[in-house]
Amino acid sequence: MSDEDDGMLLNFAAVSSSTEKKPVIKKKIVGGRWKDRRRTRLALENRLPKYKRDKQDDGNVNPNQVPVSGKRGRARMGQNNSRKEENGEEARSSRDEEEHGEEEGTTSHKRQRVTKEIRGSNGGKGDTFVSSLFTANPEVQKRDYNQETKAELKPSNAPLINDESADFAKLGINKTLCRCLEQKLGYAKPTKIQRAVIPALITGDDDMFVQAQTGSGKTLAFSVPIIERLMRASDGSVNRKSGIFAIVLSPTRELATQTYEFLTNKLCSACHWIVPGLVIGGEKKKSEKARIRKGVNILVATPGRLADHIENTNKLDLSKVRYLVLDEGDRMMDLGFEEAIGKLLTCLESVFEPRLPQNLQNCLPAKRVNILCSATMEGTVKKLGQMSLKDAKLITTDNGKTKGENRSGKNDMMAPEQLVQEILVVPPKLRFVTLSARLKNLTNDNSAEDAAAQKNSKTIVFFSCSDSVDFHFIALTRTGKRLTVQKKRRLPKESEQSSKNSQEGRHNAKKYGRRDGKGSRQNEKSGDTNDDEEAQLGKVTAMTAPLINDNVVIYKLHGSLSQEARTATLSHFAKNNQYAHSILFCTDVASRGLDLPNIKNVVEYDPPFTLQDHLHRVGRTARVGESGLSTLFLLPGDEENYIKKIEPLHGDKKENLRYLNFEDQLKSAFAKYETESDDDKNENDKKHRKRKARSKNVPKREGDWDVHATTFQLNTERWLLENPRAKEIATNAFVSHTRAYTTHLSSERDCFNFKKLHLGHLAKSFGLRETPKKLANESSKSHSKGPREDAKSKMFRVARKAAAAQSAEFNTI
């Protein structure tokens, strides 16, 4: 040692970082998401990555703070971290959309917004966050949205006005019936199919297959020859006691009722001694049996109810039937009426009497003539033709010579050429608001070039199931009122005199057995019409829709309604002139053969199940040469392939097929516009006029159109949360819609694949903030009863169930 040393020896041992013990935290962290719990654990152990530690330091986060414990605790990492309830519907919906957005990787809107609701839908339990409609949406394929349709489209089903050779009198029709066609129906010239069918049925006795476009007048084509041949009998020889000479079968009650009213009110007004009759499901059998006992000459019926009368009504005599018309035969086969039709054909063969009274031998055919009418010639209609037709002639619009050889019929399976078909590809979350926007635009008089032509216009919206009809009806009419009848005021003196006259008129009618005595029928109408209208209106399912437009009324029609409600609703919809615009929400029960006046627009909100259904749906407009507009809603992705399937149905040139942008529809419907007032128009200040003209039709700066569209959607969601019954209807609609989606044909499975549907986004279009648990509960119950079924069996089971529910809407017995 040296002298400077003090004798003390210090030994410093440096501890390496690898051997340093880290603090162990044994406190259990509960509550919140697993990501938050893990981040908190790492923060307490000082194991967070550097960029996460910097983020915590910037946010003034206390790393020693532990999430709140409890079953439904929140992970609170700082004051600036937004709070979410883990059990809230909005949080689950938001996470679902974020995860799906990462999978899709694309959005259809530039704005990535999250709309904040404060004490709104959660019952005041703090702030909740609802994802925007315009985030995490699949990409929509870009198309030419500025394509203009030519103003003049030549109609393909119009009367032959410019053809001098086309005349009802030259077809073999008597003058009385020709006068009736001109005065009652306003038909001065026949259509192509009428010119081909009428002379063939008047002069020939062969079976026929009549195929023509929708709205070309097939009902008139087969009914006029039957009445013409009955009118050729000597006066007084044919009456209601003579027997049934013709049967007209229709697949739906609405079509049967329309055919009956057409015969009664239009054609038979020229020959009142020929009496039509009607037997359909939903009516009282007792009254129908009394009508049959009283006697009818032309019986209009649905297959199920007619088969029931054949078995149980002894007074039903079908031995003199000379005409059997199967109207919309393909639909009858699709609905399962093959057995009923076969039973009818067997009965007609067994009871047929070849001998007729002498006065009818030269008027009616010696054998029964079967006529099959359809707009399509594919599928089960060929099987029906083999069952009912023998050596039949095929008559089409381009087949004026009525050749009897087999043909494919593809050229005739087309929509009317004057129909404009629009395609609207919409993400699933935006379906409800886009439908509302489309209806707003269609019923907006200011947007129409000819506002007078839009008055009293009617629109039909087709859905896939009745539950979906119910939901959209209550959702869009929740702020409306039921229709009311405006009673006519009468003076006291006149009312007393009219009551006396009505009593005298009823006494005379009862005494002399007539209803057209002096003052009887007229005074009855003046005193009792309003009461009858009120009783009839009580059965109409219709309400006003201020959410769409102040002058709009919406009707609903489907097979689950009572027959009285269906008849009253359809009749009031066809005759309503009180409101400027009428909209009918319906299923395919109204897609076949109905000829409703002033149908300007058809909206296919749910895609049709077959191409034939598409033709019949769009055929409700553009009838007998009139113009028409149809809109088809599709989802992005595989459903866009469906456009290629319907393109051949709308012409080879594709002049009447165009595409719409859903954002343009939302913008035109939900943007707030300023307009000039009357005072401003009368001002003489030119500068003020120019300034107001610049601001005309310019959106206000109160909010963008997407904000108003989101508000419209959120109001619907809030309404469902506050109304348990409405939410139940929305849930049933979603479940029924998903089941119906599985019933598309296998040939179209490349377009409609149930496995590729995003159920969370689809549920939002029904106002639901999460996918209903009803589907999971049903699947778990089915698995608990027995062995687990494979995916293919489950798909077929659900498809059969949906098909049975769809066929039940046409219950005719």
Automatic annotation (TrEMBL):
<comment type="function">
    <text>RNA helicase.</text>
</comment>
<feature type="region of interest" description="Disordered">
    <location>
        <begin position="31"/>
        <end position="131"/>
    </location>
</feature>
<keyword id="KW-0690">Ribosome biogenesis</keyword>
<dbReference type="InterPro" id="IPR001650">
    <property type="entry name" value="Helicase_C-like"/>
</dbReference>
<dbReference type="GO" id="GO:0005730">
    <property type="term" value="C:nucleolus"/>
</dbReference>
<feature type="compositionally biased region" description="Basic and acidic residues">
    <location>
        <begin position="492"/>
        <end position="507"/>
    </location>
</feature>
<feature type="domain" description="Helicase C-terminal">
    <location>
        <begin position="434"/>
        <end position="670"/>
    </location>
</feature>
<feature type="region of interest" description="Disordered">
    <location>
        <begin position="673"/>
        <end position="702"/>
    </location>
</feature>
<dbReference type="InterPro" id="IPR027417">
    <property type="entry name" value="P-loop_NTPase"/>
</dbReference>
<dbReference type="InterPro" id="IPR014014">
    <property type="entry name" value="RNA_helicase_DEAD_Q_motif"/>
</dbReference>
<dbReference type="GO" id="GO:0005524">
    <property type="term" value="F:ATP binding"/>
</dbReference>
<keyword id="KW-0067">ATP-binding</keyword>
<keyword id="KW-0547">Nucleotide-binding</keyword>
<feature type="region of interest" description="Disordered">
    <location>
        <begin position="773"/>
        <end position="798"/>
    </location>
</feature>
<comment type="similarity">
    <text>Belongs to the DEAD box helicase family.</text>
</comment>
<keyword id="KW-0694">RNA-binding</keyword>
<feature type="compositionally biased region" description="Basic residues">
    <location>
        <begin position="31"/>
        <end position="41"/>
    </location>
</feature>
<feature type="domain" description="Helicase ATP-binding">
    <location>
        <begin position="199"/>
        <end position="395"/>
    </location>
</feature>
<keyword id="KW-0347">Helicase</keyword>
<dbReference type="GO" id="GO:0003724">
    <property type="term" value="F:RNA helicase activity"/>
</dbReference>
<dbReference type="Pfam" id="PF13959">
    <property type="entry name" value="CTE_SPB4"/>
</dbReference>
<dbReference type="Pfam" id="PF00271">
    <property type="entry name" value="Helicase_C"/>
</dbReference>
<keyword id="KW-0378">Hydrolase</keyword>
<keyword id="KW-0539">Nucleus</keyword>
<protein>
    <recommendedName>
        <fullName>ATP-dependent RNA helicase</fullName>
        <ecNumber>3.6.4.13</ecNumber>
    </recommendedName>
</protein>
<dbReference type="InterPro" id="IPR025313">
    <property type="entry name" value="SPB4-like_CTE"/>
</dbReference>
<feature type="domain" description="DEAD-box RNA helicase Q">
    <location>
        <begin position="166"/>
        <end position="195"/>
    </location>
</feature>
<feature type="compositionally biased region" description="Basic residues">
    <location>
        <begin position="687"/>
        <end position="698"/>
    </location>
</feature>
<keyword id="KW-0698">rRNA processing</keyword>
<feature type="short sequence motif" description="Q motif">
    <location>
        <begin position="166"/>
        <end position="195"/>
    </location>
</feature>
<dbReference type="Pfam" id="PF00270">
    <property type="entry name" value="DEAD"/>
</dbReference>
<dbReference type="GO" id="GO:0003723">
    <property type="term" value="F:RNA binding"/>
</dbReference>
<dbReference type="InterPro" id="IPR014001">
    <property type="entry name" value="Helicase_ATP-bd"/>
</dbReference>
<dbReference type="GO" id="GO:0006364">
    <property type="term" value="P:rRNA processing"/>
</dbReference>
<feature type="region of interest" description="Disordered">
    <location>
        <begin position="485"/>
        <end position="535"/>
    </location>
</feature>
<dbReference type="GO" id="GO:0016787">
    <property type="term" value="F:hydrolase activity"/>
</dbReference>
<feature type="compositionally biased region" description="Basic and acidic residues">
    <location>
        <begin position="514"/>
        <end position="528"/>
    </location>
</feature>
<dbReference type="InterPro" id="IPR011545">
    <property type="entry name" value="DEAD/DEAH_box_helicase_dom"/>
</dbReference>
<feature type="compositionally biased region" description="Basic and acidic residues">
    <location>
        <begin position="82"/>
        <end position="98"/>
    </location>
</feature>
